[in-house]
Every structure is written in C-alpha cells, then in structure tokens.
Amino acid sequence: MRPFVKMTGCGNDFVVLEASDLESLETASTGFGVTATTASGSGQAMLDKTDIRAMCDRRNGIGCDQLLVIAAQPVQMDARSGAPVAAVSMQIYNSDGSEALACGNATRCVAQLWMDRELEDDARREQVLAAGEQVVVVITASRTLRCWRALDRSTPSKTIPSTTIAQDPFQNVNVFVDMGLPEFEWTRIPLSRDVQRGSALDAVTDLGLADAPKDVASLLARGVAVGMGNPHLVFLLPSEEQLNQIDVRAVGSKLETNALFPQGVNVTFAAIGPAATTGSNAEASRRILAKVWERGAGETLACGSAACAVIAAAQRTGVLVAPAATAADNAANQSVFSVQMPGGTLQVGISAQGTMVLAGPSRVVFVGVYSPPSQSALTAPA
User: Fold this and answer.
1) How do strand 222-227 and strand 231-237 relate by DSSP bridges?
2) Residue among 281, 306, 253, 280 at smallest CA distance from 289
3) How far apart are CA 312 and CA 266, in angstroms?
4) Fewer beta carbons under 10 A from the terminal one: N or C of the chain?
5) CATH number of this structure's domain 200-342, picked from the four choices 1.10.287, 3.30.360, 3.40.1440, 3.10.310
6) Where are the domains of the chain?
7) What's the fold here for domain 2-180+364-370?
8) Strand partners, 93
9) How far apart are the C-alpha atoms of 8 and 65, rounded to whole Å?
C-alpha cells in the first residue's frame, strides 16, 4: 500500500510519491521493483517501468501524465535573499515508464506541496510571514530551480492574488518558477549533430517529414529546437485555423523519437496572433495558442517547459520582440506572455537577460493510498 498525492497544473496531472515510502517497500510482496538509496544518500528511488505504467494507467491505476518521486534535501541558501530555504529533489517518470529530466508544471506542483507543508510548522510559518515570501528549491535531473510565492500575512495558508503584489506582472497565479535560460546550442538541447543553422530545423532534410501530406508539410516547413532542461521542438504557425489542421498525435508521435534528438523530444505546435493593443504592452497582448505532444506521455492538456519553449522560439525567430536590454533583472523588466493550452493558461515571463519564469494554477486534486497489483497481474501473458 503506497500513499500518494494527485496534483494538477492546467490539466497536466501528476501522482506524487515520497522516496522514503519506496525505500521501506517490500519488493517481493508488492511487485514493485525498487532500487533506493539510504536517507543519507541522494534520495533517489528507482521504480520498475511496469510499476510506473500500472500507476499511471487511467483505467486500472491512479492515472496521470507523469509520476513524481520526491525527497527532502539539505537546506540551501537562497541566491537572492541569502536566507536558508527548503530543498526537495524530484524524479520524473513519464506514463510509459521512461524517465524525464525536467517538467515545469511538475515543478510548480511539487513546490506548492512543499510550501503548504512548511506552513504547517508554526515556527517556519512565522519565518515565512516575516519574510513576506516563501521560497523552495526543486532539484531535478537537469536543473536546480528556484520557486517562490508571496504570502498574505493575515491568511498564511493562501497566496496573495498577484494583482495586489507591487510590480508583479503575472495575474492570478500561485507559484513562480525560475526556469533559467533557454538553450539553442546543439550539444545542449541536445541534438545528435550540428545542423549548421543554429536551432532552425528543416522539416524534410532534418526531420524526415518528406512523406507528410502536402498541406501539413507546408505548415511545418521549419521547426525550432530549444532546450529547457529537456529537449523541445517548436513549430510556429500563423493562425489558429492552421493549428487546428495539425494532427498532434500523428505528427508528434512520429517526431518524438526522431534520430536528431538522442533523448527524444517534446513536440509543440503554436499559433501566435496579432497584437490586440498598441504601445509598450502590444507584444504581451498577442494571443498565443499551443498544443503539445510530450515524449513518453503523449498529447497532454498543458506543458510548462513547452510554454517556455514557445516563447523562446518565437523570440529567437523574431515572431515576438524580445524585451530591451536593461541593467536590472526583476519582475518590472519582464515581458510577460500568456500561453493558452487545452487545459488552461500559463504565464511565461522573460527578462532582458533571457531568463524565463513560469507561472500558472496548480492544486491538490486528492490524496489516497495505492494498492499495486500482484506480480502476476503486472506480468504480460506469454
């Protein structure tokens, strides 16, 4: 029997397990295949792919896009405030059993869960209230990510609506994640070879879409490869109508295992409309729609790192105008874009220095206890 927490961020849903629970598991009696470190080790706990697929199954298991294994880590010093902050490691497993290196929405969800737990401790709650900001560091296989939220001193269990926070351009969000810089250098995305054109990929010569229907091939003539701690391939389309012409499953599943991406790739199709206003906020007013095929999980309702990759690709190619360079790097100097996905809207901020911040809704859906099937039930018939 395994306790778990089910969480969601814009419909991108996760099952969260504690590594300490897995470490105490009796492998023979439960059917889980676990290789776990001790509490003094890295906090990693490896699950057998069959077990992961069973838990992620939406009919016979709990059901989720990805399964997360988290573990408390030593306190770190916050790079901005210099104060000690909690840290938690997060392993990410796709619903097909493969391991992922990063996930923006999972990071937001785990950060919120850890923050909520912190507030249950009276002494820590007082410290957070005095600071006015709560910070948690989430450690993934590819990046260490600073996550934060501002707190209402009168109701410490809730966040302040963003519109009441001075100089905060995000709206109606809970947790902010500093996603770092997007990568365009081919070895860091990574690609299997240098395509000699930066990160711009030709659909036929680079991606092998020569056999795609002509109407689809013309829409996907050029893709942009972006690294956000995990590899992304972004196709920028001129209209929502053209976005809706794309068969996300057919194209996404074909490209997910393309040889150009040694780790596989998340495939995103995005349409960026004209500005709805003029002036300094014109770029942020543009309607941005996106659909995602995630490697190892299939088509999902949202993807945080993909939302960041869309903005990075659009600015890289000049579809969106990057913010002017300034000496400071804070919320007041960010361009903030709303990326609408089937499950909801995510906000992506990008500073003049190129650092990306992700924000959006996240919540606990329910908690429960999972009873894994017996070993015989997990074994496919001969």
Assistant:
1) antiparallel
2) 306
3) 15
4) C
5) 3.10.310
6) 2-180+364-370, 200-342
7) Diaminopimelate Epimerase; Chain A, domain 1 (3.10.310)
8) 67, 99
9) 10
- What residue has token string 């840290």? 87
State whether residue 97 is helix, strand or coil. coil
Whether the CB-CB separation of 66 and 298 falls below 8 Å is answered with no
3-state class of 144 per DSSP?
A: strand
Measured torsion, CA atoms of residues 116, 121, 125, 127, in degrees rounded to the nearest 10 = -130
Through-space distance between the first and last CA atoms of the chain, rounded to whole angstroms: 28
Sequence-ordered list of residues with C-beta below 8 angstroms from that of 148, at least 6 positions apart, any chain: 133, 134, 135, 136, 175, 176
DSSP assignment of 298-360 equals: EEES--HHHHHHHHHHHHHTTSSPPPPP-S--SGGG-EEEEEEETTEEEEEEE-TT--EEEEE
- Which residues are paired to 360 by β-bridges? 175
Distances (CA, A) of 139 to 29, 167, 177, 296: 31, 28, 12, 21
User: pLDDT in tens for each of the 382 residues of the chain?
Assistant: 789 999 999 999 999 999 988 764 433 223 333 333 323 334 445 578 999 999 999 999 999 999 999 999 999 999 888 888 999 999 999 999 999 999 999 999 999 999 989 888 888 878 877 777 889 999 999 999 999 987 655 554 544 444 333 333 344 447 999 999 999 999 999 999 888 666 678 877 888 777 767 767 677 888 999 999 999 999 999 899 999 999 999 999 999 999 999 999 999 999 998 776 666 666 667 889 999 999 999 999 999 999 999 999 999 999 988 666 554 444 445 688 999 999 999 999 988 788 999 999 999 999 999 988 764 455 544 4
Amino acid at 254: K
Strands 344-350 and 298-300: unpaired
The two domains 2-180+364-370 and 200-342 share their CATH topology (first three levels equal) = yes
The verdict on whether omega for the bond into residue 190 sits within 30 degrees of 0, i.e. cis, is: yes
Count of residues in the chain: 382
